[in-house]
Amino acid sequence: MSVNIPLIEISGDARERGRQHGEAARDRIAQSIAFYSESFSAASGLDWKHVCELAPQWLPLVSRYNGDELVDELHGIAEGAGVTLGDVLALNGRGDLSYTNPFATEECSAWAILDEASPDGHVYCGQNWDWKLATQDTVIMLHIEQPGKPTIIMQTEAGQIGRQGANSAGLALNATGLGPRWGSGLRLPQPYIRRRILDSWTMSEALEASFSSEQSVCSNLLFTHRDGFAIDVESTPGRHGWGYPRDGVIVHTNHFVYFVPPQIEGTYRPAVVDSLIRLERIEGVLARVGETTTGTELRALVREAMTDHFSYPNSVCNHPDEREPELDRSQTVASTIVDLTTGEYRLSHGPPCANDYELLPWNLYADSSVAAAA
């Protein structure tokens, strides 16, 4: 690959996986700590040292929800990176560290196309991951081999245990922020919920991971399976809402579509108004999927949708808004197209308008009969 993004392979027991992650991403973890330390202080007055002292309070929640194995992996990341466990826990809890949640405007756009709609009978999914401009250089790709669990290919921020990706069981997760939060007390940050989803062997197990979580923020989770099934879940600290593809296509951005939670129904406004634009723009392009005749043409259509610049810079293909303070500027830091039928994982590091979707050297189904059958 020519893109400037670390491709990190980790394997072995949990502690060893964590050490490998920490060692390989040491510089990017340090860079991420420096950015969030400055950002938390500027946005909400949170002192990084104090946050790190309090962060171990998350460990009992993580252990109860994810098991001690994931806690060992967190310890390993800290050891490999030469930072404290509190640093790693703070990186994983970056969306939960302030009640005002200065990081709520994660402006992502996710999609899935099922076999009934695609020209080659394959199942595809992916997303534009829009986040703070400064994190462009802290993104990594992880290939995680773990005994007794599916192998995972995942894009995440260095030091974080879970975000977006797919696994060798044919299950993919693409996630977008929804903004609002409510409730009191310590709750699970999203990386732990998303990692448990990606650790799942079946769709029902993955959904259970979402519906059994005690979360603090609202997050949209698009689940896609290689067998031609997708469901989109608007998850909240209270009840969840959900929807299914229409004519084999589903898209979600950053606002509630299926319901508005009763806790906020009297005052609800989308956290980012351009979400209302991006949803319609992507759906409009992907409605033409029936005009494609090959997988190559389908990927070109997806690229057309994900590089849309209407309402630039706050567009589907997101770019820094020079009117915002430097620390608040965001852009598309990564974009993906995953073929869940063949296991091919394509990544654009940075805005897809300026970067190609390059095929990763990893296949989801390497050393399995699924890739050969496809």
Indicate the topology.
Blueprint: E1 7-10, H1 14-24, H2 26-44, H3 48-54, H4 59-66, H5 68-81, H6 85-92, E2 109-113, E3 124-132, E4 139-144, E5 152-157, E6 164-167, E7 171-181, H7 190-198, H8 203-211, E8 217-225, E9 229-235, E10 241-243, E11 249-252, H9 274-286, H10 295-306, E12 330-339, E13 344-349, E14 358-363, H11 369-373
Parallel strand pairs: 1-4
Antiparallel strand pairs: 2-3, 2-11, 3-12, 4-5, 5-6, 6-7, 7-8, 8-9, 9-10, 12-13, 13-14
What does this structure look like?
The protein has 374 residues and is α+β, with helices and mostly antiparallel strands. It is built from 11 helices and 14 strands. It has 2 domains: 7-92, no CATH class; 109-373, Penicillin V Acylase, Chain A, CATH 3.60.60.10. The protein is 31% helix and 24% strand. The strands form 2 sheets. The protein has an 8-stranded mixed β-sheet with strand order 1-4-5-6-7-8-9-10. It has a 6-stranded antiparallel β-sheet with strand order 11-2-3-12-13-14, with helices on one face. Strand 5 (152-157) and strand 6 (164-167) form a beta hairpin. Helix 1 runs parallel beside helix 5. It is globular and about 55 Å long. The two termini are 24 Å apart.
Approximately how much beta-strand content do the residues carry?
A: 15-25%
Number of domains: 2
Q: How much is the radius of gyration in Å?
A: 19 Å
In N-to-C order, the SSE pattern is EHHHHHHEEEEEEHHEEEEHHEEEH
Question: Averaged pLDDT, please?
Answer: 92
What is the CATH class of the largest domain? Alpha Beta
